[in-house]
């Protein structure tokens, strides 16, 4: 029998959040056909079918910023309180990555402290960009400093890129989510965020997106970054060995094969991406991970359970 899973990439959509999306014109968020259905009972049923012991809930794209800064702060507080309620209603089955009302950094730091200190959140979630503020932007330094001081976890989730729409009318998760994750985390590495905040754990989604494949190219072009005010080029390989990654999406075999070339098995975690990945697809993708020859029994146990239990 396969070991129980811990799911670090699981979403929830309480009714009030769904209504906030609809009120803000997000009936087809990021170009998908519709907001997927979600409720506690269905989520638990799928978790039982997948042998998921605990799912860490987070709000997916487009996050909580639909109106002004005050509305975003209120919605972040409400979804975080709701995730904590769900966790308490089903002991041991759920955790939470708290939403933050970025790019209002002062309000985001306040919500981070509330989520970690009062709610006992497992960490926080940030999208790959927040209205064009990408993850290497100096504006976010107070957030990173707080996470670093608490040795807490940042879970990154992709969203629609900011700027010119190059999706050609296709849903953004098809390609653009992967590119925006790659862009955002590369920006974090090159701007030195991971070096300045070594006690902050960062989980990159979807097996690292395109970053493992592009690591050698980034290294090759690193001399272009040389300037008198730089202490030295960032260590791309070192950063990839430090980052954590989930296996949401379709990582087997191509993405997982590339990921295993740049990081250790101890940094890889299971993720379902439910409900944005439908239940039937979650089952199929989990089976692919269970059966892949890229992971022996020990490695599979670490990916499904041990690594996440140690981290969270």
Automatic annotation (TrEMBL):
Keywords linked to the UniProt accession: Hydrolase, Lyase, Metal-binding, Zinc
GO molecular function: 6-methylsalicylate decarboxylase activity; hydrolase activity; metal ion binding
Top enzyme category: lyase
InterPro entries per record: ACMSD, Amidohydro-rel, Metal_Hydrolase
One of the GO biological process terms: secondary metabolic process
One Pfam family of this chain: Amidohydro_2
EC number: 4.1.1.52
Signal peptide boundaries: none
Origin: domain of life: Bacteria
Keyword Metal-binding found: yes
UniProt entry tagged with the keyword Hydrolase: yes
Reactions listed under catalytic activity: 6-methylsalicylate + H(+) = 3-methylphenol + CO2
Any one GO CC term of the record: cytosol
PANTHER family: 2-AMINO-3-CARBOXYLMUCONATE-6-SEMIALDEHYDE DECARBOXYLASE, AMIDOHYDROLASE-RELATED DOMAIN-CONTAINING PROTEIN
Entry protein name: 6-methylsalicylate decarboxylase
Source taxonomy: Bacteria, Bacillati, Actinomycetota, Actinomycetes, Mycobacteriales
């Amino acid at each position: 029998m396969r070991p129980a899973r811990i799911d670090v990439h699981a979403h929830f959509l309480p009714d009030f959040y769904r209504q906030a999306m609809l009120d803000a014109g997000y009936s087809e968020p990021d170009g998908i056909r519709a907001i997927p259905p979600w409720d506690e009972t269905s989520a638990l049923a799928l978790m039982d079918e997948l042998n998921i012991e605990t799912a860490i809930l987070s709000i997916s794209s487009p996050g909580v910023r639909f109106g002004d800064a005050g509305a975003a702060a209120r919605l972040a507080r409400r979804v975080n309180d709701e995730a904590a309620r769900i966790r308490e209603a089903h002991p041991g089955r759920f955790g939470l990555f708290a939403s933050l009302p970025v790019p209002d950094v002062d309000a985001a730091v306040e919500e981070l402290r509330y989520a970690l200190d009062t709610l006992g959140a497992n960490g926080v979630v940030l999208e790959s960009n927040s209205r064009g503020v990408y993850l290497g932007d100096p504006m976010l330094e107070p957030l990173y400093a707080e996470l670093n001081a608490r040795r807490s976890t940042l879970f990154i989730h992709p969203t629609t890129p900011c700027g010119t729409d190059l999706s050609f009318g296709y849903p953004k998760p098809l390609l653009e989510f992967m590119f925006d994750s790659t862009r955002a985390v590369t920006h974090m590495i090159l701007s030195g965020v991971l070096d300045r905040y070594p006690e902050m754990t960062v989980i990159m989604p979807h097996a690292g997106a395109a970053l493992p494949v592009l690591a050698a190219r980034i290294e090759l072009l690193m001399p272009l970054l040389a300037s008198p005010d730089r202490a030295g080029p960032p260590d791309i390989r070192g950063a990839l060995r430090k980052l954590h990654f989930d296996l949401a999406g379709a990582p087997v075999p191509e993405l997982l094969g590339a990921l295993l070339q740049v990081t250790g098995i101890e940094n890889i975690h299971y993720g379902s991406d439910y409900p944005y990945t439908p239940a039937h697809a979650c089952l199929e993708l989990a089976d692919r991970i269970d059966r892949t020859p890229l992971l022996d029994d020990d490695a599979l146990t670490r990916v499904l359970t041990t690594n996440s239990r140690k981290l969270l």
